[in-house]
């Protein structure tokens, strides 16, 4: 572009105007920051004058109160000496940070995401930190978001309790001027809000509790928190997101994995990066028990050995004893509530997961492993069609007395023939192809001539060369089909690498949460996981309905025009140690 032309001159003038506007905006922002700094400085000076007058009246001899006052400018001292909380027995005790709380405090960044186990006291630490920050700094706005308002109010109650038990002289420096169910405000202009989401004014500190549960129950609200509340925090301010894990999908899972990967890569952190913090049950000194009288079974010993090999830490007998007794209480929820590793936390079943028990059996019996493709046996497929949605295909072999799921494919392309062409490039000799009930329905727009009738997907795939097509009829009740999957799933072996995405779908297949009734609905949630599940359901019902699970030799003979080699008799257990 010629800058001397009329167009060039106009563009250059626009650029100069934009730069001038940017400079003016930066100047306004700098002035606002300076005004805020001056306000805080004035508030500090006023606080010092009030302090001196109060001390003169309450502690004229220069005793304990005056000595304590000398330490009040030290936040580290305040956090471990000034505040009162309730312990798990409801007793009032001084707040002193435990090992895990101190570890987080020393590692805290601007944006923090905590994958935790239970009973570490992070909610209490964060509540005390927010109170401390707002009490000793003027014109601060802080927010607390929780899964329900009653849960959020409990956190605000911690702040009210800490304030109520301050020394009256300290309270008088900055009285609580407003005390509502969902907010508190102090004389210095600082305010703390609670809620189940937040949009609006800019916050300097935001605490989001149990984002994992929020994402599992209400994905839209989790998204609202991300797009709304998190955007109220300016660069350089503080966000703390903490939760136990809830499955291998959702906002919390995705944010944790992104932050963990950045940590593992050793990437330099910026004020806009979340820092990953993980607190397993075995870390710190909180989770220990006298081992006398505790029986540690061979299964637990094997588990502890595997964990020690992975974390490179030796687990003491006291920690092992605590874990065994805690697992007796928590049962199937132990890995979610008290995980040993981040992967274990997310692999544990989430609330509302339909196949939770079956997936636990698969993992416990090590059926999710490396499963080889046996060239001596045909491969069956189970489909879920993704017309304007997700397409999923599972690949199955019946080898001897074993059902093996060896591969998984998914995508969003509407053209089912394209997927048929793709799977023909895989090194498999195919047996039967199980298609869902809608494969027998005629599709509008599939007629090749003006007077021709629309075609079914079965006809389209058959014309493309697919043989041995079995259309699985629609079941009257979804629960009946789910029950059939529940019966068969624990008996299969699934390849943990080729089927990793599909495994996640099975694990995350769940019912929806009913906010009004406060319980789980009976109908499954329609999402990516449900599509992965539906393909597996088609496979399960097809194998059972057409007898493939019972007689693979007859299946091979049935395949017309095929040159599949005769099955080789192999020891089916060799591959399981791969």
Averaged pLDDT: 84
Structural class call reads alpha/beta
User: What is the alpha-carbon Rg in Å?
Assistant: 31 Å
- Shape by Cα distribution: globular
Unreliable spans are 550-578
Task: Annotate the secondary structure layout.
Elements: H1 6-58, H2 64-69, H3 75-81, E1 84-86, E2 92-94, H4 99-107, E3 111-116, H5 122-136, E4 141-145, H6 149-164, H7 168-173, E5 176-179, E6 183-186, E7 191-195, E8 203-209, H8 211-217, H9 219-227, E9 233-243, H10 251-265, E10 274-279, H11 298-311, H12 317-330, H13 334-337, H14 342-347, H15 356-364, E11 368-369, E12 379-384, E13 391-399, E14 402-411, H16 416-424, E15 430-435, E16 442-443, E17 455-456, H17 457-463, E18 469-471, H18 478-488, E19 492-495, H19 500-508, E20 511-514, E21 519-524, H20 528-545, H21 552-558
Describe the structure.
The protein has 578 residues and is of the alpha/beta class. It folds into 3 domains: 82-279, Rossmann fold, CATH 3.40.50.300; 282-351, no CATH class; 368-577, Nucleotidyltransferase, domain 5 (2-Layer Sandwich). The protein is 43% helix and 19% strand. The protein starts with 5 loop residues before the first helix and ends in a 20-residue tail after the last helix.
